[in-house]
Amino acid sequence: MYIKLFYIFITIMLLVINKKTFSSCLMLGTGKYKNLQEAQESIVASEAAIVTVAIRRAQRAKIMGQSNLIDGLNWNKLWLLPNTAGCKTAEEAIRVASLGKEIAKRLGQVNNNFIKLEVIPDPKYLLPDPIGTLKAAEYLVQRNFTVMPYINADPVLAKQLENIGCSTVMPLASPIGSGNGLQNKLNIQIIIENSNIPVIVDAGIGAPSEACHVMELGASGVLLNTAIAKSSKPRLMAEAMKHSIISGRMAYLAGRMNKSSTASPSSPLYGMLNT
C-alpha cells in the first residue's frame, strides 16, 4: 500500500518539458542570497530539479575569479536552466543564449538546450518586452533551443509563443522581486486554460500560500528566487515552498468543492431523534 501511494505521489509531482521529465514542479533561481552556502542549502532543501542561473553573472564571476554557485552544485542531480537576465534586446538575448548552451556542456549536460528567455529593457519595473521576446523566441526555436519565455500575463502573447514552438510560457504573478503575490490571477487562469504546454508562474511570489494558490489554479510549476533568498531563514522557507507546491498540485488534481450562497449541513437531517 505504501509503495503504491509513493508512486502515485511521484506521478503527481512530475513535470514534463519538451519530453524531458523532472521530479519537481518547483524551480529555483540563484541570485540575492547572502552567501553561496545559504544558496546551496536552500536548493537542497527545496528538492527542486531545475535551477536557473544568469549567464551574464556566471560569466562575470568566472572572469573576475570569484566563487561561483555553478561550481558548488551537484549537476548530476540538477538540471541547469540558463537565463538571459540583463538582456535588453532580442539580439542580446540570442547571443547570451548561445553562451548558456556552452556552460551546460561544460557541466556534462551535453544535450541541454534549455533557455529561460528574458528580454527586459525596463530598468524600474523589470517588465519584459513582448515584441523582443517573441522575436528572440522564434529565432531560438528554429535553432532547436527549448525556449521558456518570461512574459507578462498576456494570454494572446502566450498563445503566439506556444504556436511558434516554445516549450513553456512563464507569466509573471507580479513584478520581479516585489513579493506582491498573484496580481494577475484572471489572465494567468486564461493562459492555463488555453495552453497545451506547461505554464510556469515566475516572479512576484512572496509566500508559500501564494505558491500554493498558483498551483491550485492548474499551473504546471513555479519559479522562485527572492521569496526564499530574502527570507529570514532561506533554508526553512525553501522547504516550506516545496510543501506548498506539492499541496497546491494535489488540491488542483483533487478538485475544489463548488461554492454555494447558502449553508449545507455536514450531518444528514434524516434519522434524527425527536426531542
CATH class equals Alpha Beta
Question: Helicity range of the residues?
Answer: 40-55%
**Biggest sheet, spatial arrangement of strands:** 5-4-3-10-9
The CATH superfamily title: Aldolase class I
- Beta-strand fraction estimate: 5-15%
The main pleated sheet reads as: 5 strands, parallel
* Number of helices, where a helix is a run of at least 4 consecutive DSSP H or I residues: 10
- What's the CATH topology label? TIM Barrel
> How far is the first residue's CA from the last residue's CA?
46 Å
Average pLDDT for all residues? 88
Architecture (CATH level 2) name: Alpha-Beta Barrel
Subunit organisation of the chains: single chain
Rg, Å, rounded: 20 Å
Task: Please provide the ordered H/E string of secondary-structure elements.
Answer: HEEEHEHEHEHEHEHEHEHH
Poorly predicted residue ranges:
none
Overall spatial form: globular
Overview of this structure, please?
The N and C termini lie far apart (46 Å). The protein has 275 residues and is α/β, with parallel strands linked by helices. The strands form 3 sheets. A 5-stranded parallel sheet has the order 5-4-3-10-9. Strands 6-7-8 form a 3-stranded parallel sheet. It has helices at 2-12, 36-46, 55-64, 90-106, 130-142, 155-163, 185-194, 208-216, 226-229, 234-254, and strands at residues 15-17, 20-22, 26-28, 50-54, 79-83, 114-117, 146-151, 170-171, 200-202, 221-224. It is built from 10 helices and 10 strands. The protein has a single domain (26-252), classed as Aldolase class I (TIM Barrel).
